[in-house]
Specification:
CATH architecture: Orthogonal Bundle
CATH class: Mainly Alpha
Strand content: 5-15%
Number of helices: 3
Order of helices and strands: EHHEEH
Shape: elongated
Largest sheet: 3 strands, antiparallel
Helix content: 25-40%
Structural class: alpha+beta
Radius of gyration: 18 Å
Low-confidence stretches: none
Number of domains: 1
Strand order of the largest sheet: 1-3-2
Length: about 70
Amino acid sequence: MRLLKVPDVAAMLSVQPSTIYQWVSMDYIPCIRLGVGKTKPCVRFDEQAVLEWLKARMSEGRASRLPQTSRGV
């Protein structure tokens, strides 16, 4: 298991470290809590768990550029 720090995960997801801390406080992103802190708790992230979490949020996308619309004729 490879453990990542907040700056590593922030760089991986192209967000600010403060966003990662917010997600941790909301239990939005999988993490390992190693300590307690009021503003910046000591947390680490299992790299594989973060990648799986990210993959679960991936959207398939549309087959065409424009969405299909139904015309009320």
